[in-house]
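[User] I have long wanted to understand how a fold can be written as tokens. Those tokens are not coordinates but codes from a learned vocabulary of shapes. Could you go through the record with me and say what the backbone is doing? Thank you; the sequence and its tokens follow:
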Amino acid sequence: MTADATPALVEDKQRAPGPRVRKSSAYPRYLAGKVAGAAVSLLAVLVTSFFLFRLIPGDPVKTMTGGRQVSAEQLAAYREEFGLDLPLWRQFTDYCGKALSGDFGTSYQFRAPVVDKIIEALPNTLLLTGTAFVLYTLLGVFLGTRSAWRHGKLGDRFNTGLALTLYSIPSFWLGLLLIVVLSVGIGPLPGVFPTGGMESGGEEGFAYVLDVAHHLVLPVVTLVAVEYGQTLLVTRSALLDEMGSDYLTTARAKGLRDDLVRRRHAVPNALLPTVTLIFINLGRTVAGVILVETVFSWPGLGGLFYQALSVPDLPLVQGLFFVFAAAVILMNTLADLVYPLLDPRVAR
């Protein structure tokens, strides 16, 4: 090696840290892009929610009067009170301006701020969806892992077939079926669960907790039965892809038991797509609980949305629609942000 080549080598070594700097900035750029995309999506939802529900037939002012004989002057006063007499473009600008500050207007039927009604019903929905989410996630991951590790056997075929069957059943139909069988009763079999609602009333303390849990059983079973199948199938598919990897063959060659190979090596890597699905399902469960809450008369956001649609209560419908869409967008964004932490190749 000549002396003239030495400065060039020194210069190359000094430049070596360059790629590491670019690599460290990959995640912030990735983070900024995902957050910006989520903000654009929320703005699109805000605009869509305004125009979409104005396509619903019916006059909300006439619906609020309950069919009573009301003079034209009274109808005009109602429209002026709720801003329905303004041009559409003026209603849109007022709605967007207030919504960006967290004000979704006043509910037509409840005569209360939309935000207050959402906050009032939100804990009930979180109780239902949170309980169901934890149960169907744990059940799906557990059964998906066992099915993949014993793929092709009777247990795998049974779990996969049952998951596909339940996943294809509409949640409202399954809920009605459970009400008929377990609430109303069939023949000599009496009903053991309430047909709907969140509480029987008149209970306090621990008795109240048991009463709410009793009402919670059928809605939770409905959501778990319909939703666990997707988690099972994704976990099973991801684990089957990992099972043929060389590192698992090496682990077995070292004498590790199959249980250790599965728990310490295969399952953690196979859970990457499952983690993404978990975040997505969390947002989708909050948005998709409308039918279940309506069937079981559960006093949450879904039941409130159904009531608002029947009027139509435009401010309340718009506010709830934004909350449902924001839950999905937020969970998708969190999944996008967590995934590179589990697999750094995503952010490159």
User: Anything to note?
Assistant: Confidence is low (pLDDT under 50) at residues 1-23. Strands lie at 185-186, 189-190. The longest strand covers residues 185-186.
